[in-house]
Amino acid sequence: MSKLQKSMPTFIGEDLLTRVDPILKPGKKLHVLVTHDESIFFTNDGKKFLWHKHGDMPFYVKGHGCSLHVSDFLTETFGRLKLPVDATVTEERDLTREACVIIKPGGNVDNWKLKDLIQQMTKKAIPIFETLHPGATAVFAFDQSTAHTAYASDALLVSKMNLRPGGKQPKLCCTVFNGVEQHMVFPYDHPDKDLHGQPKGMEAVLREHGLWEDRLKAKCKKCRQRDFSPERSICCATRILSLQPDFLSQRPLLQEVIESFNHKIVYYPKFHCELNFIELFWGAAKVYTRNLCDYKWSSLQKTVPEALDSVSLSQIRKYARKTCRLMQKYRDGLTGPEAELSEKRRSSHRCVCKSLYQNFNETLL
């Protein structure tokens, strides 16, 4: 990420309204970070603290109530990934005005799956980005949820394969070995009619690669214990096949889709949502909805779009700058509490006890 930041624009000034593009070498493209996240707004999510007369406690509605699921993208350049009001939309691209998708989640209503995110990417986010940033490369940033790192149903994954042909193993996609296309299912002109159109399995694929050895097990004991030592490369069929170039180059479905449009993808570290500046954006939007909460479903549907637009571009850029500083502190070796403490400013006579700084790096003392 630090290498990509050198090709990204920066913003200066008191309100970060002045954009400064990097000086790029010939053949290099401008990169723009596009961060993504999802959040849920509830009907009964109102103020939790308020002043009231003694003995006159307000009544709160129990439960969360109905909810709205929001999937949105943010950039430092334009804020929310949406076209300006004065932007002209050509009929050729059939663009929507914004990349945001709002649904009502629930078992009998709407569901949000990976295919919905991919459709949002291909139909909205990527076309809008390319309209706003012609010639630039998007760096889409996602958290490491199971949906965002999921593979296609026909992806080249050894874990889905059996040792023998047929069975319940899925039919994997075609691949290329030594410059020759290799099919992962038996052809319909195969001598054994029972194998027509059936998945090959690891043994047949390894025989075609010239890597099969007699008495080779599907998975050895060490691999079952997730002991993948570099010196053990031919211990079992699973290990041998997983180290082949075509299997090693297999990417998650979301990454394949984004890279097919010549853009890039990065993932935030696990359990570090504080590095995603859209989290601060959600917080500001929910403050807006809580202040206007009247515990009505119709009001929530009206308030949520207003809340998303209530956060200014300057504020979004400040959020991004804060997370950028936090990333750099992690690179410098600070822990989470140390990085958070270093963000706090001391004013007047109030200061932090020196004992709290004993683990800080010398550069911060």
TrEMBL record:
Keywords: Endonuclease, Hydrolase, Nuclease. InterPro entries: RNaseH_sf (IPR036397). One of its GO terms (molecular function) is nucleic acid binding. Signal peptide: none annotated. It comes from the Eukaryota. The keyword Manganese does not apply. This is Dde family endonuclease. It comes from Thalictrum thalictroides (Rue-anemone).
